[in-house]
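User: Second chain of the day. Same drill as before.
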Amino acid sequence: MPDLITYGDASVAQWGGAGDLSVRQEDKMASEDLEPRSRRALLTAAAGVAGALAASAAMPLAAAATPTSLQTEQDNVAVATTSVTQVTNAQVAFKARATLTGAAGLVGISGDEADIAASTAFTGVYGWAPHGGVTDVGAGVWGDSVDIGVYGTGDVGVQGYGSIGVYGSGSTGVSGESLSSTEPGVLATGASASSLALKVVGKVKFNRSGRAAMSSGARSKVVTLAGTTSTSKVFAVLAT
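Assistant: Same format as last time:
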């Protein structure tokens, strides 16, 4: 009996001996049909892969930020946040220092910088933001904390200059406390003898003011107030 060998859909009978090969006519046709079908399958698969590549090439690519090293002496453009995380306690995360005093050690700008200060000499940190428009307010520096947003120390802890030098808004707008027995907690000074030093819109309350009642027919009333001396000025206003 011949050995039956199967190739795809074709059945081939192979005789031993000299290797005489006999193929049934219908199987021969199937065998001849096998190779073209395989080529068609390969071409179809290749076309499918090419179509998938073309479709993926037509799709917009996501803009992924590629980490790069910061370069000195030039602007470093970034498309994502650049941050420094310090994991060691009591170590500064980022430090900027100008060894000379002709410009600020660090400058922070939000938006257009056309109107920034011409000189930032003798300044550790300088912040700039343009006018916020109708609904927003530009802030060069914003300090935010549950405790103290901005804290200043020095001969002058905090100084403001502008149409309004210092503006405070809150349960108490502005609070001043003196640690000296002779200096005021809040000092209002006019630029000249004719300048207005203090203007109050609304009521004024002094904790060293009060009322004292006089009996009918009495000619005097003694009121004791701590801190007053014989040279203190006391104003008494009679009321009914």
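The chain is about 15% helix and 10% strand.

User: Great, on to the next one.
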